[in-house]
Structure formats: C-alpha cells, structure tokens
# Entry
Amino acid sequence: MIPLRDLNPSRTRPGVTILLIAANAFLFLYELSLGPNIQPFILQAAFVPARYLGGLGSVGGGSLPAGFASALLSMFLHGGWTHFLGNMLFLWIFGDNVEDHLGHLRFLFFYLASGFAATAAQAFMDPASTVPMIGASGAISGVLGAYLFLYPRARIVSLVFLGIFVQIMQVPAIVFLPIWFLIQFFSGLASLGVPTAHSGGVAFFAHIGGFVAGSLLLFVLGRRKPPPPAALPW
# Structure
C-alpha cells in the first residue's frame, strides 16, 4: 500500500513539518550537486555504527559528540529520488496531525528524538556494520507510531495492489499502520544473519525502533495546551 493523503485535517499550519521537508530537500539537492564526490561525502558525514560503537566513548576514532552530530545529519540525507520522495510523502501525510497534537516545539523534539532512537536501534542490532545509515525514515517511523495511537480511525487514501490490479481505497489508520509495522518487523527478522543485510539496503530495525520510540514519546510529551477561548464581543 502506498499512502496518497489522509482524511484528517489539522487545526494549525504544520510549520515544523514544512521546515523539516525543506531541510531534507536542501540537503538532498546539495548531495546531488556533489556529483561523483557524493560517495566520499556520505561515508564521512553519515552515521556508521562501527565508527562509534565499541569502547567507552569512542571507537575507530569517532567520539560520542561526533556520533550524535553524525546521527543528526544522517536524518536529513537520502540515497536517491525514490528514497527522498517516499520519505517526504509519509512525513507530509502524517506529520501535520502529530504536530497539531503536540505543538510545534514538542513536535520538533519528538521528531529528532525518534530519529536518534531509530539510529540507536539499528546500530544495536548491527554494531559492527560499516554501512552508512542515511534517511529520515527512522524519525518518520516515530511519527507513524504516534499517529496510530492518536488517530486510529483516520482514513488513509492509498494505492492498494491486488495482484496485477491497483485500486485507490480508503484504509483506516488502525489497519494501514499495523500492516506497515509488521512488514518492517518480519523483514527485519528475515535480515538477521543474512550476509547481504550487511552490505546495504533498508534499515528495518531503525523503522521498528523509531515506531516504538514515537509511540512511547507521545505519552511522555503529552498534549499541548489548547488555545484560550476567544473573548466575547460584549
């Protein structure tokens, strides 16, 4: 299933969601501008588990502060147009409502914390990996986890593939998002011990970790204060 939009209008302008999409777009265009130098840039800038996990404080020359900075930058880097556009589509569809619930500053903290948790989950499952971790999908997975608990009955207009047929359907979030999570979960299990899992591909455990972190952070951060009632004209 590919989401197209949700039938769940927000009350406020999703300023942080728009800024996050803009930041991702800016860095993706910067990547494209590097041409043949993009590979060395990704290897140097992105979070690589083996570079930071292993002794106390550092491993392979990577300090903990540098590791946090690298994990943060990695949330805004992408490996191609499909990777970038797919992530931004999910963020645009689901981010506005979660931002509406949490408020702008809480949502920004929530998004980044989900991304760090996603990076930690993937790195924990494969600490010796030398593959750079890039993409916003871990942080966006946190948004999906929160959305499921906030708006389980919201309808997601989706492209649904039924064999060779494709149909546009309205799928409840309580159906769409658990199916998405189960795909990540079982794909992650299937990748364990498979040699090709260490040479690149999808960071399924980052998706799982981000989703779980987002669900928990939602309840830790709570709900923003409702706007004060408008003054009566008399």
Notes: Residues 14-154+175-193+203-221 form a domain with the Rhomboid-like fold fold (CATH 1.20.1540.10). The chain has a mean pLDDT of 87.
